[in-house]
């Protein structure tokens, strides 16, 4: 029986997350979600189960409401790096979920690195 695209995505997401949890215990997780219209990112403390910081293209103050392109992803990446610094977080591991590391996801990660967040 062939796997559907959704099943393959879920398998890839779980494989990535489980590997990251084994190798990066104790660090914050920078989790990315990309939809057809928006991109969002959260800085999660898995030990306490809390979201420390978040950024999304849905925020009006970023000036990219409703845009889902590389420029918008770059602004979201810069915003999360700034908010992470305010929260006192300097290092995190990048959880791309089931998304491939290219395009918008890569642009977001690169912008977060340029903003001073060590991924």
Automatic annotation (TrEMBL):
Alphabetical GO biological process terms: translation
This protein's record includes keyword rRNA-binding: yes
Protein keywords: Ribonucleoprotein, Ribosomal protein, RNA-binding, rRNA-binding
GO molecular function: 5S rRNA binding; structural constituent of ribosome
A cellular-component GO term for this protein: cytosolic large ribosomal subunit
Alphabetized CDD domains for the sequence: Ribosomal_L18_L5e
Presence of keyword S-adenosyl-L-methionine: no
Cited PANTHER family: 39S RIBOSOMAL PROTEIN L18, MITOCHONDRIAL, LARGE RIBOSOMAL SUBUNIT PROTEIN UL18M
Function: This is one of the proteins that bind and probably mediate the attachment of the 5S RNA into the large ribosomal subunit, where it forms part of the central protuberance.
Family the entry assigns: Belongs to the universal ribosomal protein uL18 family.
Name the record gives this protein: Large ribosomal subunit protein uL18
Organism expressing this protein natively: Sulfitobacter albidus
Organismal lineage: Bacteria, Pseudomonadati, Pseudomonadota, Alphaproteobacteria, Rhodobacterales
Name of the gene encoding the protein in the UniProt record: rplR
